[in-house]
Structure formats: structure tokens, C-alpha cells
Amino acid sequence: EKNNSGFEVERSSDGRTFGKIGFIKGTGSTTDYNEYSYTDADAFKATGIHQLYYRLKQVDLNGDFTYSNTVLLCINNNVIASMQVTAYPIPFKDAFTIRIVSPVAEMADIEISNAQGSLVSSRAVSLAEGENILKAQNLIEQEPGIYFIKVVTATASEVIKVMKENR
What we know:
Order of helices and strands: EEHEEEEEEEEEEE
Helix content: under 10%
Structural class: mainly beta
Number of strands: 13
Radius of gyration: 18 Å
Number of helices: 1
Largest sheet: 6 strands, antiparallel
Strand content: over 45%
């Protein structure tokens, strides 16, 4: 961490309009590993809705800030769930598998971009509630390096990083 004042925890019912619900004090500048947590106690009972969006606003000591990705939490039969995206194997040579665990059935746009931001691949898929397994193939001609997988739905957005090794 460097010049970390702390984290504002923000919540939204629609994924667009966020409000600050708490602040977690940072440790300034350190190379030590730090864990932070915040509990939004009884949020679902207080709001009366079944899905809430959260994000963090990381604030530097000089006032500069950046936002985290937005996370959707859904409650279904008193179980809280959010979208999870993973990929394997990492590093990959010409193909990899994308695993998406979705709290609801919905459409998703999946984009794969290189480190320069150029779009390598995109497609729309229909996600089922629960586990979804997708293949990203025919990437043998792509240069080795870092690639980003972006999964966007009406209720969530998630970006993960993968690494392509030499052919």
C-alpha cells in the first residue's frame, strides 16, 4: 500500500446510484500484508430488496481515489450470492476455460482484450443460474502476455487477468 487513507464502502440498490455506508481506515504506506473487512449488518432486511450492489472507493492521503469493480450480492432463501469469474489453465497456450458462477439466469457479454486494450474476442452468452463453463479457443496466434476477460451482465461486471505463454 502507498499513501492509503482508507476505503469508503458504497452500496446501491440499482447498480448506478451509490451511497457511502462506511469507512475503513487504511495504514498509509506499508509493504506489510493487510486484511480489511466491513459488515453491512442486516442490509437486506433494512432495504427490503433481494439484491444489492457494492463497491469500494480507495482514497489516498492526498484525496485522490479509485473505484473497485462493482459486486452484486443476491439473497435467495437467506443465502447471499455474487457472480464469480475464474479461468484455467493459467498460463495458457492456445485456449482456456472460463468458469462463471452466476446468482441469476441472465445474458452476459464476454470480451477478451490484450494488455494494450485491443479487443481480441467478444461474444454474448446466456448464463444459467449457478455454474457456467465456456471455452476460449483459437488464441494460438495471439502474442504472449497479459489478457483481460471482462464479463458484463445487467446485474454485475467482473474483470480478471490471464497470461498467455509462448506458442
